[in-house]
Amino acid sequence: MSTKIITFEGHSFSEFRLRVEGKDFEVVSAIYEAISKGYKSKKKQVTAFNFRQKGSNDIYGFSLSREQWPLALNTCLDIYAEQELYEECSKIKNIINGLSYEKGKRGYNQKRCNKSV
Predict the structure, then answer these.
(1) Residue burial 73-111, b: 16+ Cβ < 10 Å; e: rest
(2) How far apart are CA 78 and CA 17, in angstroms?
(3) What is the pLDDT of residues 36-74, one digit of tens each?
(4) Across the strands, what pairs with 45?
């Protein structure tokens, strides 16, 4: 089963980088969708999207390794919360928790236990 990767076009890579750094919702959505699919299929890396400069045939892939997913997903979570897409926020938190458990770290829904005798 092959997944179609979205290709963004721009006049220059630096112009597109501003779009990424500006947390453009379309870019954030592509990142979230790629990570979500990669997580479900237990991939070690995903290509979130491609970039093609107008007038050029060169295509550059934007890939994220599994270690980069929690940071990327936290950014996605912020943007989805700003858009009031709370159901998706819940799904993002579940993936972050799953990744945290893989690394033996606390997830979002973990409560701290205070053991006192």
Answers:
(1) beebbebbeeeebeebbebbbebbbebbeeeeeebeeee
(2) 19
(3) 999 999 999 999 999 999 999 889 999 999 999 999 999
(4) 65
Residue at token pair 């970039």:
51
CA nearest 44: which of 66, 11, 25, 62?
66
Average pLDDT of span 88-108: 83
Q: Is 84 helix (H, G, I), strand (E, B) or coil?
A: coil
Question: Which residues have CB under 8 Å from 26's CB, separation 6+?
Answer: 8
DSSP 39-56: HHTT-SEEEEEEEEETT-
What is the maximum alpha-carbon separation in the chain?
Answer: 70
Q: Is 0.70 topped by the overall pTM?
A: yes
Hey, what are 94's tokens? 């579940």
Q: How far apart are CA 26 and CA 2, in angstroms?
A: 21
| Residue 1 in this model has a pLDDT that exceeds 70 | no
Q: Do the Cβ atoms of 36 and 91 come closer than 8 Å?
A: yes
